[in-house]
Design brief:
Structural class of chain B: alpha/beta
Largest sheet of chain B: 9 strands, mixed
CATH topology of one domain in chain B: Peroxisomal Thiolase, Chain A, domain 1
Chains: A alpha+beta, B alpha/beta, C alpha/beta
Radius of gyration of chain B: 19 Å
Number of helices of chain B: 12
Order of helices and strands of chain B: EHEHEHEHHHHEEEEHEHHHHEE
Largest interface: B-C, 67 and 62 residues
Shape of chain A: elongated
Strand order of the largest sheet of chain A: 3-2-1-4-5
Oligomer: heterotrimer
CATH superfamily of one domain in chain B: Thiolase/Chalcone synthase
Radius of gyration of chain A: 35 Å
Strand order of the largest sheet of chain B: 3-2-4-7-1-8-11-10-9
Strand content of chain A: 25-35%
Distance between the termini of chain B: 19 Å
Number of domains of chain A: 3
Number of strands of chain A: 20
Distance between the termini of chain A: 66 Å
CATH architecture of one domain in chain B: 3-Layer(aba) Sandwich
Helix content of chain A: 10-25%
Structural class of chain A: alpha+beta
Number of helices of chain A: 12
CATH class of one domain in chain B: Alpha Beta
Shape of chain B: globular
Chain lengths: 386, 382, 394
């Protein structure tokens, strides 16, 4: 991308944001997104989202999250030529503040369409020799004159012979001459105006051998205008969005069911392998080590120690509801009283205890007021203060 | 020439409308314990089960990697456990290949399915269709079967009466099968009056919803006698996939089944299938399929389905003595249970449904809309 | 145990791996790789006896997806087998394909592993593997910071963090040479410190930069009997052996006692029965299923049966680089591309390509005679595949 075509593009991206807002995308979001775009044409902007509306300010105004990146990279990300996550991972794009806000930002705006660079009639004729379609000019010998009127116009002759095309300035020995306005000629070339329609409606006038003109449509490959955007926008394909779900009724069975029922009485049960004697929490039908049925239940805990804490900063959406929980949270394996080795129980540690989450620290379960016989009957484990 | 593979033992739970008191692990454990008791096999490294092949479906189980829930009882802890995510009869196909390759000697097969768990099995089947065209027009396995039943019925002259006779007879057999405690006898009148699901398929023409588990122990010929005195040999296997879009197929043509059967017969060296089998177990998810699959397998004459039903071919040919899928087996395990039932007959362990002197058998499984995929296994005892 | 007959890999096809494959639907994306594999093997669908198919259904919410995918797989009229084992699916497909050919049931089979992760929610899909009654409410996909914690405790925070970043950046250097790879970031070693500090944390010290991608993509492999392989391929990659080792549903690794990993257990068994006593010398390279650079670093020790800090040294000395003494993942590995149902197969396919000499820009500069590939999935499950240039004795 040349400097000339990108000049002003960053400013244009921000300037068009308010007109590109997707209402559902910004619904329920209140945040200021700061942007520091470095390099020529860069600057500082704040995208303020509130009450389903977007206001763009050309300065940094109390941003909740700030993104810093180079102008070229920002343009590439906006045009979809550079993946935002890739730019972020590779350090091209730096973020400070509440990173979680950026996830939603991808759905704020309609796709940005860069302004087309000015298309000139001269450029259309200048590129003809490079756009020759060999099959289209095969066996044709003719001179086609073009008289293009208007500020942008001029006169050219397209000479076809021996499978080659030469474009000359001025009208030279034409077999057929076409006269039309510059804006119409550009529209026809871009496929926005049908040549036959233009001829029929009188926008395009022809003198000389009309038959030659009917073959002229196949002389050249498609004209690509010089543009700041992708050379040729591909067809916008449809993406089908659906939520699929099938309501389930999970049986708990005599082993898991017994364990869940005990939770209603604030008792935590393990079951024991009759061969290797190890405890299983939660109880399972067989011991995987010995592949034998486990029938004996043993009450454990309820207090114990932290064995392996794992602090998650990434909010994993609930696969059933799609809701994300608050971060950070601590997914934790506890060794309850009466258990040893790998006989751990997996649950959560109270969020405010995370800074003190270390191996060996004593904990106790905190129960919900209403007990339903579910894993969530235990709200979380908390650290026991001496 | 690869070594022979024998079925050493077979076990199954009852198949019931709703095993609300059991997780699939409970059902699987019942089968595993029976197999171990019958054969004395264990999971020891040198002489025990070298590979377990489970058969389940993530969508039916509503669980990614559904076999992970069975790892413990499949001896998968520091052992080899694989999963066939297709019609369960394909576990025999994979187990056969694994043993014949020389990689293992003893293989455990274990399938489970709880059709009662999801709100509707049709919602599961619906997800087999592409999201752009065939889902929006509302196809599921039952509707597709309806289209096929129309096409086949027209070609072979199958009437509502014929279908009712098939159902009455299937329920009769199932009522004698202790693995089908929930399946009751029905009368011709009841079938003929039952409501339409997808014309011409009536409610009683469709296999009942069920939960259950089935398993087998396979072993290489040189190891078989460590586990059983009555091995049943897998003599042939064959399967085939049809086109996906129903409009691309002749729904009455049995294209995939004919190809599957030919492969199985070729491998088993069978030249005249009509005289090759003492009994047959077919996956009849819907009543019209019993004569249709018989035609496809070359076991009754082409377009001769109606006559076959009228002459009670199902009795003379000893077809679905278990009651078949119309007795009630889950979609995913239909063919697997058919192979299990056929093996029980050949072993002489079919109890109340045992026939005399059966030496050879054919078992069949089917999956997908209007029989897109068929799998055939041929069996023989010494 | 005696293998019935030899099986060789004679063709590999891979679609472009990317997070953006909206321009193709599932069968179309599969078809891309099918065509490439057939082309490489010099075959048409007429030569294929059986089509194997595997992925994880709940990622795309398609039931029995091989039915619809027949439009792209070419399975119409063929025998088929569908096997799935979660993350190890691709490696399991290789084992099944090996069995189908070695058994004599088929002379040529095609195995297809695929995933279109952008059509569903990956972490949600993985979380769904947990028991619905218990851990489903606690799990965070396949993410864990425990390995990072353990390595930092064992080797000191600074050295462990640096080694995991060196591993990460080495993988990116490899990915830059593999035009099929999804994430090619252009990282340099001087960014190690900055990235280790500033990349957003996911779980504990597991940061975004360490973690594998979520990709759309397909891998296809064609396997043939010795006779067919010789007819169609100048240098097949022969399947010497493979081993599958799973672990129990509840892991049982989070307490206070020694842990034998399935990786080390599987490697010991495989090496023992193939008379490999010094894997670093007797094996030439490895394609490892490395879901994060912490795991990749840690598992090096397990797969190669190393002791102490030998695995850190291998990374620090550049031994795992493409031109190093023991190249790991010349493809860029799983951190670069991760279409889950295909991922484990890509490991075997890439190892096979190194033996066949078809890896192009990411071909290891010296001859690869023996290659190892690992698959990973479930609750720490392992599949190892051993491939050789020379025909294994039967």
């Amino acid at each position: 991308m040349t400097e000339k075509t990108t000049a002003g593009l960053v400013a244009d991206i921000f300037a068009t944001m308010e007109s590109r807002v997707i209402p559902e995308g910004v619904d329920g979001i209140t945040a200021n997104y700061g942007y520091i775009i470095t390099g020529p044409g860069g600057g500082q902007w704040t995208v303020c989202v509130a009450d389903g509306r977007v206001t763009v300010v050309e300065d940094l105004v109390t941003p909740d999250v700030t993104t810093t990146c180079a102008n070229d990279d920002w343009i590439a990300i906006t045009l979809g030529k550079l993946d935002g996550m890739t730019a972020f991972s590779s350090g091209k794009l730096k973020v400070t503040g509440d990173m979680g806000l950026l996830v939603a930002a991808a759905g704020f705006f309609e796709k940005y369409q860069p302004p087309l660079a000015e298309i000139t009639v001269a450029d259309i004729f200048a590129t003809m020799e490079s756009r020759v379609n060999p099959d289209g000019v095969q066996g044709i010998t003719a001179n086609c004159g073009y008289r293009i009127t208007g500020d942008n116009g001029g006169e050219w002759t397209v000479c076809v012979a021996d499978g080659k095309v030469t474009v000359l300035a001025g009208i030279k020995d034409p077999d057929v001459t076409t006269t039309c306005a510059d804006t119409d000629w550009i529209a026809i070339t871009l496929g926005k105006l049908d040549g036959m329609t233009a001829f029929s409606s009188g926008k395009l006038k022809v003198t000389g051998n009309l038959d030659i003109l009917s073959t002229a449509a196949r002389f050249f490959k498609k004209y690509s205008p010089p543009s700041a955007g992708p050379e040729e926008a591909p067809e916008e394909l449809i993406v089908l969005k659906q939520v699929l779900s099938i309501p389930q009724t999970f049986a708990t069975g005599p082993v898991m069911g017994h364990f869940l029922n005990a939770l209603k009485e604030k008792r935590i049960l393990a079951n024991q392998c009759p061969e290797c004697q190890r405890l299983q929490i939660p109880p399972r039908e067989v011991c995987a080590e010995c592949v034998v049925r486990c029938k004996e239940f043993v009450q454990i805990g309820p207090e114990g120690i932290i064995s392996t804490p794992d602090v998650a900063y990434y909010a994993s959406p609930d696969p059933l509801t799609g809701e994300t929980r608050e971060t950070p949270y601590c997914s934790c394996h506890f060794l309850l009283d009466g258990c040893k080795d790998h006989e751990t129980m997996w649950h959560e540690l109270k969020a405010s205890d995370i800074p003190r989450a270390e191996r060996g620290v004593r904990v106790r379960p905190v129960w919900n007021d209403t007990l339903t016989g579910s894993v969530t009957d235990i709200k979380y484990f908390e650290i026991i203060d001496d | 020439m690869a070594r022979k593979v024998g079925i050493c033992a077979v076990a199954q739970t009852t198949f019931q409308r709703n095993k609300w008191d059991q997780r699939f692990q409970n059902m699987g454990l019942e089968v595993l314990e029976s197999l171990r008791e019958q054969t004395g096999v264990d999971f020891s490294e040198k002489k025990g089960i070298g590979m377990s092949i489970s058969c389940s479906d993530d969508v039916f189980d509503a669980r990614t990697i559904s076999d992970n829930g069975l790892t413990d009882l499949l001896g998968g802890h520091f052992g080899c456990e694989e999963k066939v995510a297709q019609e369960g009869i394909q576990a025999l196909y994979y187990g056969l290949a694994a043993i014949q390759s020389g990689h293992v000697d003893v293989v455990l097969l274990l399938g489970h399915c709880k059709e009662s768990q999801g709100q509707s099995r049709n919602m599961v089947g619906h997800l087999a269709f592409d999201p752009f065209y065939t889902r929006p027009v509302g196809l599921d396995y039952c509707v597709s079967a309806g289209l096929q039943a129309q096409a086949y019925g027209k070609r072979s002259g199958i009437t509502d009466e014929h279908l009712a006779r098939i159902v009455v007879r299937a329920r009769e057999k199932a009522a004698k099968n202790p693995h089908q405690p929930d399946t009751e006898r029905v009368t011709m009148e009841e079938v003929l009056a039952s409501k339409f699901l997808a014309d011409p398929i009536r409610e009683l023409h469709a296999y009942p919803v069920s939960d259950g588990s089935v398993g087998m122990i396979l072993a290489a010929e040189e190891r078989v006698h460590e586990f059983t005195d009555t091995p049943v040999w897998i003599t042939g296997v064959g399967n085939s996939m049809d086109n996906f879009f129903l409009g691309d197929r002749d729904l009455a043509a049995n294209t995939a089944l004919k190809a599957a059967a030919k492969r199985a017969y070729d491998r088993a060296g069978i030249i005249d299938p009509q005289s090759a089998f003492d009994l047959v177990e077919l996956s009849d998810q819907y009543a019209y399929q019993l004569p249709m699959w018989m035609e496809g397998l070359g076991l009754c004459n082409e377009a001769g389905g109606a006559k076959w039903v009228e002459e009670q071919g199902f009795d003379t040919d000893q077809v679905n003595l278990s009651g078949g899928m119309l007795g009630g087996n889950p979609l995913l395990l239909g063919g697997f249970v058919r192979a299990a039932e056929a093996a029980l007959q050949l072993k002489g362990e079919a109890g109340t449904r045992q026939v005399d002197k059966a030496k050879t058998a054919l078992a069949h499984g089917v999956m997908g809309p209007a029989g897109q995929f068929h799998s055939v296994v041929t069996l023989e005892r010494d | 145990m005696k293998k019935n007959r030899n099986v060789g890999v004679i063709g590999v096809g891979q679609s472009v791996f990317s997070s953006h494959r909206e321009e193709v639907n599932q069968p179309e994306m599969i078809h891309e790789a099918v065509l490439e594999a057939l082309d490489q093997a010099g075959m048409t669908m007429d030569d294929i006896g059986c089509v194997l198919h595997g992925n994880m259904e709940l990622f795309e919410m398609v039931h029995q997806p091989d039915l619809w995918h027949t439009l792209g797989t070419g399975a119409f009229g063929k025998e088929t087998l569908r096997v799935t084992t979660g993350g190890t699916t691709g490696a399991t497909l290789v084992c099944a394909a090996d069995a189908l050919v070695a058994s004599g049931l088929h002379d040529v089979v095609m195995a297809i592993g695929f995933e279109k992760l952008q059509e569903g929610h990956t972490t949600g899909g993985i979380t769904n593997m947990a028991d619905p009654l218990w851990t489903r409410k606690l799990q965070t996909g396949a993410l864990t910071g425990m390995t990072a914690t353990q390595l930092m405790e064992e080797f000191g925070e600074e050295r462990a963090k640096r080694a995991s970043m060196l591993y990460r950046i080495t993988m990116d250097h490899h990915a830059m040479k593999n035009k099929k790879a999804h994430r090619r970031l252009g990282l340099e070693f001087d960014q190690a410190e900055d990235l280790a500090k500033n990349s957003p944390p996911l779980v504990g010290e597991l940061r975004m930069i360490h973690m594998c991608s979520q990709s759309d993509g397909t891998c296809v492999m064609i396997f043939a009997s010795e006779e067919k392989a010789r007819q169609h391929c100048k240098q097949p990659a022969w399947i010497k052996d493979h081993i599958t080792v799973h672990r129990e549903e509840n892991f049982a690794v989070f307490g206070d006692a020694p842990v034998v990993t399935t990786h080390r257990y599987a490697a010991e068994k495989l090496f023992e029965r193939n008379n490999i006593t010094d894997p670093r010398k007797e094996i030439d390279m490895m394609e490892m299923y490395d879901p994060s650079s912490w795991w990749g670093l840690d598992w090096l020790r397990e797969f190669l049966l190393l002791e102490g800090d030998e695995h850190l040294e291998m990374v620090e000395n550049g031994e795992i680089a493409m031109d190093g003494a023991f190249p790991i993942n010349p493809s860029g590995g799983v951190i670069a591309s991760n279409p889950i149902g295909a991922t484990a197969m890509v490991r075997v396919a890439e190892a096979a390509m190194q033996i066949m000499g078809t890896a192009g820009d990411h071909q290891v500069p010296r001859q690869v005679n023996t290659a190892l590939a690992s698959g990973f999935g479930g609750t720490m499950w392992t599949v190892l595949t051993l491939l050789t240039r020379d025909l294994p004795g039967v």
